[in-house]
Amino acid sequence: MILTYIYHSCYVIETDDFAILFDYYKDSGKSPVQGYVHDTLLKRKDRLYVLASHFHPDHFNPDILTWKQQKEDIVYIFSTDVLHKGRAKMEDGLFLKKGDEYKDAHLFIKAFGSTDAGISFLIRTGDKRIFHAGDLNNWHWMDESTQEEVNEAEKAYLEELALLAKTTRYLDLAMFPVDPRLGTAYMRGAEQWVTEIQTCLFAPMHFAEAYDKVAAFKNYAEARHCQLLPLTEKGQQFTIK
After folding, report:
1. Element (H, E) at 213
2. Which ranges of 15-114 would DSSP assign to H, the alpha helix?
3. CATH no. for residue 128?
4. pLDDT for 12-37, tens place per residue?
5. Has residue 60 got a pLDDT over 90?
6. How far, in Å, CA of 151 to CA of 84, rounded?
7. How many distinct structural domains can be found in the chain?
8. How far is C-alpha 67 from the chain's CA centre?
9. Which of 88, 132, 136, 175 is paired with 157 by a 20 to 30 Å CA distance?
């Protein structure tokens, strides 16, 4: 299984039989339509699952709906808010809300909640357990919010985290926001995540170009027996054994 970082919250997981693309915003190349997705992924002959956790433009690019014109075996699985916000039509794909499930010969998906828009995805394929958080995070904005607002944001996040922990206590891979815009405690949600759920490989997202800020999470992660993906550029690939 190969994991490729595209940009922002977008990753690709590839196996010998299929691929999964999460929260496509723009490609990994010098232009939004140049890079690994257009040059390699869309040219694969096997099945491609395209997932979108919610309607925000940095997680859902409507260009993905045009890909079915060049690739036959493509399955779109979106949060229901993508439909309700008019970003896609009912015939464009399958739509999940929190608690919904999807299953076929390749994978099983269960939709969990978010502390912003849409959903998050827990995926089981083969012997692997994988999670893509979408915009699930402890969005506390601690440096500029009231203590009441901070407490409310944290409570909502910890409730969602507890729900997931009841389903699985271990993940082979978690793709999760580490967003420096949150200020001094920007890693708080990620820290709570790896403390609550044993995570083998942690793939950061939602950080733009702040690779140094993401790298600062390494020591905390490793202290909890979790490997932080060492990202330094778009298009990097890693093998998940």
Report:
1. helix 211-215
2. 36-39, 80-84
3. 3.60.15.10
4. 999 999 999 999 999 999 888 899 99
5. yes
6. 30
7. 1
8. 20
9. 88
